[in-house]
Description:
- The protein is an alpha+beta fold.
- It has helices at residues 25-30, 32-44, 57-72, 121-135, 150-157, and strands at 18-23, 76-83, 86-94, 104-112, 140-146, 161-171, 177-186.
- The chain has a 7-stranded mixed sheet with strand order 1-2-3-4-5-7-6, with helices on both faces.
- Coenzyme A (COA) is lined by residues 15, 42, 47, 49, 110-112, 117-123, 145, 149-151, 153-154.
Amino acid sequence: MGRVQHGEMPQRPPAGQIEIRRLETAELRAHLDGLAAVLADCVAGGASVSYMAPFSHEDARVAFEGMAAEAERGRRLLLAAFDEGRVIGTVQVILALPPNQPHRGEIAKLLVHRSARGQGVAQLLMERAETEARAEGKTLLVLDAVTGGDAERLYTRLGWTKVGVIPDYALYPDGRPCATTFFFKALDR
Length: 189
Ligand SMILES: CC(C)(COP(=O)(O)OP(=O)(O)OC[C@H]1O[C@@H](n2cnc3c(N)ncnc32)[C@H](O)[C@@H]1OP(=O)(O)O)[C@@H](O)C(=O)NCCC(=O)NCCS
């Protein structure tokens, strides 16, 4: 297991030290605990990202094992942000969509550990996700975010187009309902 575990994180790194890498096969498996630590921390912080409380590190690891299996089959790609070898953030692009939407991808699980927020890690992850998606032949990306949350501001800042809001679309980890805003972005060919 890496140095990142169970929500414990060291000092915030300067943005210049952050490295974004696409994780595949062995490297992805090697960082499952680091990825799980970021997911568990986000859920503990109240993020509405599919999972309900209580949500343990083991729960998060199981979730990432499933997503890693999808990545290994080429159905999604997974990026991670590192500070000196520690995972501090992650994002995925879902590539496998119905046959009539081969040009479309979906952004999923943009997660930054609470101790690493507010220094551009998510922006770096999103910029790289767009680059990787374009390299996979995608020309249209979609995503959704909790209405009024930090992510919605980020996506607006990064040039995504807001489609609309669906009230009570999902739940926060504590069971409260939350509205969701849907976005799209056309990528340059
Ligand atoms: C949403 C989320 C991914 C943002 O991650 P982040 O790394 O903090 O995002 P950024 O650092 O790129 O941007 C956050 C803020 O820091 C600011 N910022 C970025 N770099 C900065 C810097 N060097 N100095 C000062 N501020 C900076 C940004 O302008 C932004 O400001 P805003 O909140 O006023 O809009 C993170 O809050 C998170 O993981 N939340 C929980 C999970 C979640 O909701 N995921 C989204 C699912 S759709």
